[in-house]
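Students often ask why inverse folding is considered easier than folding. One informal answer: many sequences map to the same fold, so there is more than one right answer. In these notes we will look at a single instance of the problem. The structure comes first.
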């Protein structure tokens, strides 16, 4: 029996499919393993390459496998699917993972530390509260509209006018709107608390502090980038990092004719959204500045319009962020 060199694991809640091969590609192990038996099984194998799809629990399993000396690679599921040879089941998925990880051009998801995931937990919970706040505001506007009170589609107007408008409603409807406004204030307090915590963490992080020197990159964006990326050396260059975020044009190119469309929107939607929101703020400030980046984005705005210029600036900032992370320097406007 040969030595196991490459292992593909299809993660699940309770039963995991494991596919292991040697250096010649011969299958040495192909079984389903329970959650309790997976780590003892992997621990007894010599150091090898273990591959998994990016899903819930993948980073925790990767950290556990690394403790036992294994090299771990995590891949996006859409990159694994083309290597599945037959129908979709757990065993075939594990085999496809094992095959995909051996491709020299395969791109991998950086393995996150527990600290990085903890920071991202704060971001995710805050984002959930923001979405809930938006839903509460919309619900308040909808209830008032049922009684002929139409408020502007602006959160500040709803906060200011809803309480006064509710006084004209029947008692039960007034109580419902009052409860919604109370819940809205509670969400505001929770979000403000998370914002304060994230800003403090960003100031304490050396890497995040360097990223905040880029126009349009604030504490949330900087901290989320550091927590999501970890080592910038996982990416070959800044364009690959921008592509990982989905900020590069989608291509329909053939026969030597390049056709570029809208951005691909792949990767982390939250991080991409933060970069675009920051680019909007930076574009507003660019008219007051005379550095090269501001002149470039203002000229681009005149040529292609506001929205395209915002996305282009977000992509430019993503490349700058990668350069700062990889070189350990700060941004200098020229």
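Output (designed amino acids):
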């Amino acid at each position: 029996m040969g030595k196991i060199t490459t292992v593909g694991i299809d993660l699940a809640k309770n039963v995991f499919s494991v596919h292991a091969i040697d250096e010649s590609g011969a299958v040495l192990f192909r079984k389903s393993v329970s959650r309790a038996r997976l780590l003892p099984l992997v621990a007894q194998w010599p150091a090898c390459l273990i591959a998994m799809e990016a899903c819930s629990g993948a980073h925790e399993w990767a950290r556990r496998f690394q403790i036992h000396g294994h090299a771990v690679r995590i891949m996006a599921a859409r990159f694994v699917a083309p290597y599945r040879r037959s129908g979709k089941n757990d065993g075939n998925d594990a085999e496809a993972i094992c095959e995909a990880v051996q491709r020299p051009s395969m791109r991998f998801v950086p393995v996150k530390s527990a600290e990085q995931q903890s920071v991202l937990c704060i971001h995710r919970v805050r984002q959930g509260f923001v979405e809930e706040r938006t839903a509460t505001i919309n619900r308040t506007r909808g209830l008032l509209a049922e009684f002929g009170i139409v408020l502007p589609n602006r959160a500040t107007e709803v906060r200011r006018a809803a309480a006064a408008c509710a006084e004209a409603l029947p008692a039960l409807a007034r109580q419902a709107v009052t409860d919604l406004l109370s819940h809205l204030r509670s969400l505001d307090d929770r979000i403000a608390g998370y914002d304060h915590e994230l800003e403090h963490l960003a100031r304490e992080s050396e890497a995040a502090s360097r990223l905040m020197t880029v126009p349009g990159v604030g504490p949330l964006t900087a901290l989320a980038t550091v927590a999501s990326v970890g080592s910038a050396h996982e990416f070959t260059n800044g364009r690959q990092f921008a592509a990982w975020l989905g900020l590069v044009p989608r291509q329909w190119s053939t026969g030597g004719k390049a056709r570029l469309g809208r951005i691909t929107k792949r990767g982390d939607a939250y991080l991409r959204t933060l970069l675009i929101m920051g680019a909007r703020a930076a574009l507003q400030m660019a008219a007051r500045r005379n550095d090269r980046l501001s002149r470039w984005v203002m000229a681009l705005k005149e040529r292609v319009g506001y929205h395209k210029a915002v996305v282009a600036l977000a992509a430019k900032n993503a490349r700058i962020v990668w350069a700062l992370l990889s070189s350990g320097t700060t941004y200098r406007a020229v």
